[in-house]
Each structure stands twice: as structure tokens, then as C-alpha cells.
Amino acid sequence: MAHSLVTVNMGQEDASLSSNGLSGKLNLAEAIMAKPSTATPTGLDWTDPDDPENPQNWSLANKSLHVAVPSFFCLSVSIASSLYVAGIPEITTSFNVSSTVALLGLSFYVLGLAFGPVLAAPISESLGRRAVYWVSLVLFSLFIAGSGLSRTFVSLVVCRFFAGFFGGSVLSVISGTNADIWAPLQRAPSSALMALSTAMGPSLGPVIGGFLAESQALDWRWTQWVVLMFAGMNVLGLLTQRETYKKVILLRRLKKTENSSTSPSNSQPPSGPRFSARLRLLLVVTLTRPLRMLATEPIIFFFSLYSAFTVSLLFIFFAAFPLVFARQYHFSPHQTGLTFLSICVGCILGAIIHVILDRTNYRPRVLASLARGGRGVIPPENRLYGAMVGGFGISIGLLMLGWGAEKRVSWVVSVLGGVPVGFGTILVFLSSAMYMVDTYAQATAASALAANGFVRYLLAAGLPLGAPAMVNNLGIGWACTVLALISVAMLPIPWILFRYGPRIRSRSQFETTLFDTENPSESSFTQYRK
């Protein structure tokens, strides 16, 4: 799923951020109650509450466009990960490699998705979101073209890695764009759309690839040319985009004002940090802190492991579904590709449930806190309901898929098994990301998401390589049972955090958010069951 992912409704923070970056946090009370700043002599803030250059004052249609275009970019990058799989039979013949080795083209692309966003998020906060989108799209397109033109398997794998590296940038920057445009209480629908774009892309790739695989006139290179077509559509979309990052907009406006002024300005834009300071920030904060948090913070470690496992299942299916449905039900390539639509349906249902939970549980609690005179910053345990429900869907879906195929019952049973898997995957992903962002303070939340995203794609890069051997050695039923048992072992994670989260958070070595509670020592379970 992408860094997705995920991106997501970060609720009480102005950080609906990327998996690897954070554009800043804004608690809900400030978003609702604080008066917007008036004009300032430095020009480094919006001139008035209705400033037309403030993205949150744009029309609904314009804001929706600035969410839809990056979401389609995310969809294109995600499709590129799995569309490649349809060409594996021809790749094995063309380059004289085994099917397992041919999967390296998938694994290295996903590995690129793990590393690229780490650098893209901080760059977007210096150069702006729009610049990163354009550079990312151009380089992504060039390396996809290089993949399609490759004459050796090594060059194919290398180009795929860098395509993932540069394409993955959008997975981190998109949620910063989301935070730029929408106020926190308005963010749930757009966050769900962004999560869907990264979660559904890997499932749509095999649908398209299945039809390509059956065409006698098209070879495996068309799996890359189709991605280039998506990239071309993104060029048209990006032409409609304006800059959304506040700092960049205001500095450009100030520079324009000073250039047109006949009198010297009384203020100058703040100079950026020196190169050495930026390098230290990159090495110490952007790269090192996520690893420290992963090693020392139970919340980060267990939720990163859980979301990484659920997203990895999607990539395991790329290798396993052709074996399952071709072997047991004699499906053709395009029929096998269509089975992935069940996962898409599950993802859509999960996104709908996410929005419903936000509207019926999270939002009312925030407004109730404000009505009591609080700041509207409620405990993050209210974010866990989606993961608590979705985890059961993953286990049930895996068993339906595996044993339905093993016993050769109707193919409908096995296909429908993908629905609860998709449903659970997106709910676990959204809940884990929002819980971590709500738990940690601004800088540490960014590192928490970076750790989560890195583990997620690192695991997704490696697990598919073992999927064929697992299915061949254990059989379809027991292979899915092993995965279901792993998911069952992870089921208690959100439940334990729901009950003991406040106690665990109080022992954190990093700065955490201060929440509105009647008794800070009480768990959210005790507080809200009354």
C-alpha cells in the first residue's frame, strides 16, 4: 500500500503527513477557536482570515482538484509496483532467470518506495510541494522508460529501484498537501481518498496486467509502457496545481513585494539554516531518530510490525494469486487479474467505515471536549476502533481464500476472501498512522511515521520472494493458515493499546502530546466506558 498510505486523517494535528514527513501539527481547538492572524508588517503570515492565497480559503472544487491530482499520481506509482508481475513469465524467458529471481523487479521497486520518501518530505518543506511533484514525476517517468528499454535483467532491476525511489516521493508529500488544504475536522474524506489511492493501486495493477498478458501482440515491456501512459496523464493534472505549502507561498509573496517596492523593506525573509546544519538535520533527525524510536518505543515497534504485515499481504498475493487461481480453478491470466478487484472492494468498504467512525465517534468527542472548555485534543485511543475491527477481517479473509481453494469449493468463496483482507488492511493502516501522529509531538510524530513507512515497505519488498515456495511446500490452505495465525497473533495489539495506551505513553522517551482528560492517569477505556 503504499506510504500510503496511507497518509490519512491526522485529526487533531496539522500533520496529516506522510509516512515519512510532517508538515506541522495544529490541535483542533486552535483550528476551530483561534482567530486567524491579521496582516503583519513582515508579510510572513496571511494578510487576513480570507486571504485568497491561503489554500484553506480556496473553493471546494479547487481544493478537491488539489487532492485528486496527487491521489492519481499515488495511484499511478502504486499500479507500477504490481503491473510488472503480469510480465514475469516473459521476463523469465527473455532474461533466462527463474520466476523467483524475476520477482526482484517487484521487490526492488518496493524497496525504492521505502527509501525515497525519507528525503522527499523535508525537501518539500524547503522547495514546496509542487516542485517535488514535478521532479518526482519526471525522474519516475525516465526510469520507467529505462525499465521498458532494458536489455539486461540487472538494468531492469536497477531502473525499477530508482523508479520506485523517485515515484515514492509523492507518497510522503501528498499528506502534507492534505494538511495544507483542509482544516483538521474536514480532513477525513480526503485522507480516506489518499489512502485508497495507495492501497488500491497494487490491486488494480494485476487487473490491467492480466489483459496485457493474454495479448499476443504485446510483450512484457508493455507493463512499463502502460505506466508511462499514466505518467503522461499526471503531467496534465500537475499543470493545474498551485503551491499549497504556507511557508513557501508567503516567502515568495514577500520576495515579490520587496522586488516591486521602491523603498527598502524593513524586514527580510528568514535565512535558511547553513548547509552543515541541514546535513545534520537530515542525518540525526530524518534518518537516525526513526530507528531509535523503532528500537525503544513499543507503540512504534508493534504498530509498525502490524501495518507492515498487513500491507505485505497485498504484495504476497501478487505472487500467490496466479498459483492459487490458475492451479486450482484453471483461471486464465485476465481472469486471475480480475480476482484482485475483491481486494479493491474491501479497501473501499474500509475507507467508508473509517469516515463513519470519524463522524460518529472521533468528531463528537472533540466537539464535546471543546464544549467542556477543553482544547479539543482527545486521547489517541479513540483512533483504534478501526484496527480493532479490521484485524478480524484479515484473519477471516485469509482462511476463506486458502481453504476455499484447497478444497476446491466454488471460486466465489476464495475470491470473496479478498474483501475482508482489503477491508482490514486499510483500517489497520489508517488507525496505526493516526494513533502515532496523535500520540507524539510534532517532530517525533514525523519520525514515528518514517519508521512505520520504512518497516512497511522493507517487509513488503522481501516477503513476496518466499511466497511461491511457501505455497508449493505447504499447499494453499496451510500457507494461508500460517499467515492467518500471524495475523491472529497481532490482533491484541490495538486492544492492548486501547486499554494500557496512557500508561505506555507516559513512559515514552520522546515528547508526546498533552491530551484533554479529566484524570490524566486514567486509561481511555476507563474514561469513556462511563
From TrEMBL:
It is a multi-pass membrane protein. GO terms for biological process: export across plasma membrane; xenobiotic transport. One of its GO terms (molecular function) is spermidine transmembrane transporter activity. Keywords: Cell membrane, Membrane, Transmembrane, Transmembrane helix. Gene3D superfamilies: MFS general substrate transporter like domains. It is found in: Cell membrane; Membrane. One of its GO terms (cellular component) is plasma membrane. Residues 64-505 form the Major facilitator superfamily (MFS) profile domain. The chain crosses the membrane at residues 67-88, 100-119, 131-149, 161-181, 225-245, 299-325, 337-357, 384-405, 411-437, 449-470, 476-498. It comes from the Eukaryota. The keyword Signal does not apply. The keyword Amino-acid biosynthesis does not apply. Belongs to the major facilitator superfamily. PANTHER family: MAJOR FACILITATOR SUPERFAMILY, POLYAMINE TRANSPORTER, PUTATIVE-RELATED. This is MFS transporter. It comes from Immersiella caudata. The lineage of its organism: Eukaryota, Fungi, Dikarya, Ascomycota, Pezizomycotina.
